[in-house]
Amino acid sequence: MSELTKVAAEVRACTACLLHRGRTNGVPGEGPEDAQIMFIGEAPGFHEDQQGRPFVGAAGRFLEELLGSIGMSREQVYITNVIKCRPPANRDPLPEEVAACSHFLDRQLAALQPRLVVTLGRFSMARFFPRARISQIHGRPRRVGGLLCYPLYHPAAALHQPSLRRVVEEDFQRIPKILEQAEQIAEYEPPPEAEQLRLF
Predict the structure, then answer these.
(1) What are the residue ranges spanned by the domains of the chain?
(2) How confident is the model over 175-181, as a mean pLDDT?
(3) Distance CA 119, CA 41 (A)
(4) Looking at the domain that runs over 3-182, which CATH code has it been given?
């Protein structure tokens, strides 16, 4: 049994936080074990909870459209979330829920060792770029702890705010070039503390 398969089984049986009480299914993630790209979203929504699969609702359809625009399909990439169970009424994940799930994501990253990690939305962005603002760093790849990370707006944000759709589409178009130029991309340098504090 592979490490990703073990993680999936553990996610489905997990009772580490209160979210397990309301779930229909845990949603560990899916994709080939040799995927070059890992997409990390926020948390499962209604359709994901029902099916036990990530990104199968409207945001998932848009993600598939975005992948198609760069000549890829979801079958070629690994897709997961920071949180593996649906929060009630799709509310934001709580810090303790993120903490309870963090070791699953750590193990998925270690097992997959993707060439590129694409974060979708501010909660997955915060896993690699704490205190950064997505409006300031989206579309700017940086290395973080040995991983090449590319922060993007969440596809759902583009569906709710049509002005963001073009931004997401343009950021997505850069993915093939980022993979091409991976060796030249620098380490992330956090902003000075004074600048970080203004982000809240």
Answers:
(1) 3-182
(2) 95
(3) 6
(4) 3.40.470.10
